[in-house]
Amino acid sequence: MCSVHDTVEFEKRGIPATVVITQAFRAAAAFQFRGRGMPGHGYVEVPHPISNLGREQVRALALRCADEVARQLTEADQTK
Asked: What is the value of pTM for the model shown?
């Protein structure tokens, strides 16, 4: 999960970061965050799968999770 690794690297540099994952990758994300020294780091979870969604469905999904992404990026503590 490169996106988790990127999130950790940004956070280590003092840059707020989060990652959007599908439900199927919940355990993998938690495992990766723990292994990279950031257990409990926040992430935004969306339904799985998304590869079959059309453009407008993806847009609607992005709009539904935008507030949560913004909240996580502006909080001082990213742990869930």
From this structure: 0.84
